[in-house]
Amino acid sequence: MQIQPRQQLLDIWRATARLSYADDRWRFGGRDGANSISDAEQLLCILAPATEIPLFRLDNPDVANRDVLDALDALGDDIQVPQRIIKALTIYLERYTSADGTPVFSGGSYFRSEDLDDTITPEQRGLDVVDSFSVSITLTLAIVGFTRVFRQVVTRPALQAEVDILEAMASKRLTAAMVGLLRSFAVNVFSADDAFGRELVRMVNQERRPSRVVVEELRAALREINARLRDDVTIGSGAAESSDLDLPNRLFECGWSWGIVREAPQIETSDVGVQRDGVAQNAPYLYFTTVALEAIQALSSERTRLLGLLDEAQLKLAQALQLRFELTRSYWAAVATFGSGRWPLEDLPWRTTDGIEFDYFTLLVGGMVMQNMIATRAPNADMARMANVLEELANRSRITRRSSEQETALDVHHPGLNFPLEGSESPGGPRLSWTVADLSPLLLKRTLSLAGLLSDGTERGRLLGLSDEMWKHLRERVLPDGLWDQPAGAYPQLDVKFTDASWYFTKRVVDCLVTASRVINESPLRSELLADIAADLLNEAEHLYDRELLNNSTYSGQSLGEQLKQIGVDLERARTQRRDRPGVAVAVTEEVLRKLDRLSAARRATAGTI
Question: What superkingdom does the record give (predicted)?
Fold first, then answer.
């Protein structure tokens, strides 16, 4: 792997600190202005590696690595760095808390108008959005984990009070974000004969069989998910619609809408302030479903469990979200791999039930298929099929293939894909839209994640090679300040030049580097062939070693005795490495055999046999 995540992350930290901290204060705002999502992404460019990669930890200055602290020298010295990060986090939480104490999850400047001439009203700017719920879960979990460790090394009462206040505010926002996700869950039930049903059947019917047969088989494949939606989804949104699932000829889709769905019931929990009425369409959006699932994964991560980051009330909310996570992941994986021939996912591009198709949607659905592969321990053959889809996406989106002067495939990189937010016009004003342009980093992250799952060395090597090509593409899009994104760097035909950093894009690049570091830290693949070779080599080496011990006199000299002792140590090392790192065992044993051969030759020469 040529990505070198440690050095790249240090460079990003250096640029982020230099750009974000000036005149003794943290400065929010980037290319898209300041809002609850962008500002969280800016903070996570530093906090995500600091809490997910042990080498980058900042919560204990006494054990922090020197190069890590040096990368943040714009924030101050060893002691000042964590203190100023705490102040920046506190400012963020205060900024996005209303006067009555309710956490704010508005989309703000990330909202766009479908018609550029229309003016978005302040009420619309303040609408809650799932992206803010999701990034807030990621950020607040990082904050609570950071404060739990940092508190142990704090001695000044004033600083301890700051840490306590920060953790309490983060915990409240975490609870509110979880409530928001529970109220944004959507179950869209429809007849197999209406427009939605026909589009779904068309997508999954890869073998062109009669629609009636496909509907029956699809309902059978989704029967367990159907039952759990009816029986187990009891709080938040999605419960009312599940009652229609028993009706004949009914199909459905589940996931997360763009915001709190219309008529979503309130949730009884600890004080999180006002639970506002929802306006979002009661139907899943693939983009928001994906970001919600990634946030829910963080709630059940090993770090969250080990540090005990969730209180009792949050654990109950997390359990309800985990249920929705499992149902949603299983649903989209079942639909995407339906049938016995070509997967619907392999029929690029993915087509949604409202008739819109994009390669980007294939990537989003593919991410859920990969999550399901982890849960079901899918065989390498299925993962190889997923790898082919990722490789095809890289080609079709012109990341690993040359682009022509005028090509619609570049639109996904700039200006990005726009999709309408149904229901956003309810407060008065134009219908809003949401723009996504993160295909490149998301595709790299999925490729690295799949490479980490594979136990087939050839397929893994192919994916790591593909990830190197994608990283080369991303490096071409770096701004002069060391952050992202300049799409014209990779596509000169794009008539656009940016000067300000996009925290939306930079944070996603950081996610790729965190994933790359996780893959690198995993144990190397174990080759059965190398293990067998190592065993045969060890058998021969041990036999020759025993013979040298037998045939060499105890008066042969101190040098020979030390050599034999070292050979014994090397053999023991090879034995311990054979199962987990057979390649190392082969290399060590081959060196032992060379040493033994030289000793044997010297002994025979001394005896006059040569």
Answer: Bacteria
Centre a 10 Å sphere on the Cβ of residue 266 and count the other Cβ atoms it contains: 13
Q: How many helices (H) and strands (E) does the chain have?
A: 21, 9
Half-sphere exposure of 441 (CA within 13 A, CB side): 23
* Residue carrying the six token digits 């192919």: 462
Q: Which two tokens stand for residue 264?
A: 């979503």
Residues 6 or more apart whose CB falls under 8 angstroms from that of 205 comprise 211, 214, 339
Identify whether the C-beta of residue 293 lies closer than 8 Å to the C-beta of residue 329.
Answer: yes
Distances (CA, A) of 603 to 543, 550, 558, 566, 585: 17, 12, 15, 18, 27
Burial 532-551 (b: 16+ CB within 10 A, else e): ebbbebbeebbebbeebeee
For the whole model, what pTM was predicted? 0.90
495: helix, strand or coil: coil
For residue 610, pLDDT beyond 70: no
Under the banding of pLDDT at 50, 70 and 90, the label for residue 157 is very high
**What is the C-alpha separation between 592 and 544, in angstroms, rounded?**
10
Residues in a beta bridge with 417: 436
Query: Closest Cα to residue 343, out of 386, 285, 381?
Result: 386
Q: How far apart are CA 574 and CA 531, in angstroms?
A: 11
Q: Tell me the C-alpha distance between 336 and 214, whole Å.
A: 14
Phi then psi for 381, rounded to 5 degrees? -60, -40
pLDDT score, position 406: 64
Burial of residue 300 (CB within 10 Å: 0-12, 13-18, 19+) is middle
| Nearest by Cα to 27 from 19, 36, 35 | 19
Q: Give, in degrees to the nearest 5, the angle at Cα 203 between 398 and 194.
A: 130
C-alpha span between 309 and 29 (Å, rounded) = 29
Q: Are strands 25-26 and 185-191 parallel, antiparallel or unpaired?
A: unpaired
d(CA 258, CA 266): 17
Backbone angles phi, psi at 389, to 5 degrees: -65, -45
The rounded distance, in Å, linking the Cα atoms of 148 and 160 is 11
Residues listed for the chain: 610
Written in H, E and C, the secondary structure of 502-559 is CHHHHHHHHHHHHHHHHHHHCCCCCCHHHHHHHHHHHHHHHHHHHHHHHHCCCCCCHH
User: How crowded is the C-beta side of 12, counted as CA atoms within 13 Å?
Assistant: 34
243: its two tokens:
């009652």
Lowest-confidence range among 228-237, 276-285, 332-341?
228-237
SS3 448: helix
Sign of torsion over alpha carbons 363, 369, 375, 377: negative
Q: Which residue has the tokens 């700051």?
A: 162
Place of tokens 């950020």: 139
DSSP code of 97? B
What pLDDT is attached to residue 609?
53
